[in-house]
Amino acid sequence: MKTKKIFAILIAVFFAFSLLFSCVLLFSVKKVDVNYAVGEETDVSAVEKELNAFTGKNLLFLDVAAVENCLAAHPYFEITEVKKSYPNVLTVGVKERRETFVVVSGNSAYITEETGLLLKETSVSTLTDDRNVIRVNLTGINVLSANAGKNLLTSGDELLYGAFEMAKAVRLGDCIKSVSLTKAPERNLAVFQTYSGVKINVEDAIVRGTDKIKAAFAEYDLLDNDYQKLNDDIAVVLLSDGTIRVTWTDRSENLTR
Fold first, then answer.
1. In this structure, are 133 and 67 located in the same domain?
2. Which of 32, 98, 200, 201 is 20 to 30 A from 63, comparing alpha carbons?
3. With left for phi above 0 and alpha for psi between -120 and 50, is residue 100 left, alpha or beta?
4. Cβ atoms within 10 Å, residue 43
């Protein structure tokens, strides 16, 4: 009787292990389906290597956070979607981050996407002209932390990130060649250099900066005088009554928006 009982237990254990093994096989990732949003010539071999490492893992117990963070060493790529398609397919969305700003401090250049996330650090001497990338020059602002894959940290983040938002508000690099930021006691100046030659000086740029730059470019876009666009500058200030004054350097009238 005792032998029969032991035999029955062994059969039950064997059945349980067989069932568990079947489940492991059934839900093992056989395919990683990747939906790419990248340039035609972008090399995604490093991305594929990272994602293929999840092949064979059990989909039931797969940690989604681990998938989302697997490209941390590749800041030019971002995971946008992770979906488990049972029984054995893992679907992942991958987006390529675009170079938008190059922040220059001394001899170092920090290339970021539009949010300020650092893509890479390089030397100023390696930079080339690229109309899709806006150069940001720093005066009175120090870089405190520069880790690829994380936001660039400086001693003037309010001014720097405000300038990023200002540039995005006027269509990024559509006509902006560079932005020069100056931080000093009681002064936060942003100077936008356009490709036509006009400089737009935004005083106290951390206060309603996007409103100021929109007002400046609204006036800039109305101007049909090519000579003035090549030779004049624009000054933008916020008046005490809350209106924004836009002034051309060689114009007698002041325009408010």
1. no
2. 98
3. alpha
4. 10
